């Protein structure tokens, strides 16, 4: 499924909304955090590297966006106490949540399954899959307080159809699709929360460069250039759409 193309979001598309973005320090998460703020959202920036989150924070203020919040969290190591603290902090500061974009991810290695390092496998599953479940779960009550909430799980070609050597990255991506469908099915009729996945296609980010080190980076669009479907799925124009697997292009 694809979002409307071309899509022209209203300048105040996300005014008054509170959106949590994981992996907000770099790549697609960084671009989405800036795009959401530019369209009026108060954005909670969750990521691993504080200096990167601080620079996104400064960019959002320089763009004239609402003041964001910074939540440093290493999803490979986060404890249940830290997760509880995250939920409590959002509740205290904002009292509700209108959306989550799950964009934090690790590539792991491109390796045959029989040679994949089990510790690395566990780490990739933790960051890319388990953390997305735990964060969504801890935010459900906050999302229920919104009249129109949207949860977006990042996907990829190999999440939809695995290929050799993509290991834990593909397995976690496939599991995320099933998680998205399960949340959507369980909450479709009794809440205002929708759940969809979005495959951005090839985009020039650090993750892409690590997966394909031989590629010329500018052969793919920059994250800022693929934000239309991220805005469409986060905002009210996609109201009523849930349980769907979207492709950005
Ligand atoms: N780029 C593509 O071509 C492409 C294609 C298909 C799907 N996707 C999907 O799009 C999403 C975003 O990817 P991207 O290309 O934007 O990747 P990216 O540029 O590498 O950004 C990933 C972000 O996740 C954060 N992160 C990684 N491990 C973390 C951890 N343990 N705890 C907290 N944050 C962590 C990184 O933090 P640091 O900045 O601290 O490293 C970074 O900010 C992913 O789900 C990816 O699978 C991307």
Task: From the 3D structure, determine the CATH topology.
Answer: Rossmann fold
Radius of gyration based on Cα positions = 17 Å
In which range does the helix fraction lie?
A: 40-55%
CATH class category: Alpha Beta
| Beta-strand content bin | 5-15%
CATH superfamily: NAD(P)-binding Rossmann-like Domain
Structure description:
This protein is α/β, with parallel strands linked by helices and 249 residues long. Helix content is 42%, strand content 14%. The chain has a 7-stranded parallel sheet with strand order 3-2-1-4-5-6-7, with helices on both faces. Strand 4, helix 4 and strand 5 (149-154) form a beta-alpha-beta unit. Helix 1 packs parallel to helix 2, helix 3 (80-93) packs parallel to helix 4 (118-144) and helix 4 (118-144) packs parallel to helix 6 (167-187). The protein binds NADP nicotinamide-adenine-dinucleotide phosphate. NADP nicotinamide-adenine-dinucleotide phosphate is lined by residues 23, 25-29, 47-49, 52, 74-76, 103-106, 127, 154, 156, 199-200, 202-203, 205-208. NADP nicotinamide-adenine-dinucleotide phosphate (NAP) binds at residues 23, 25-29, 47-49, 52, 74-76, 103-106, 127, 154, 156, 199-200, 202-203, 205-208.
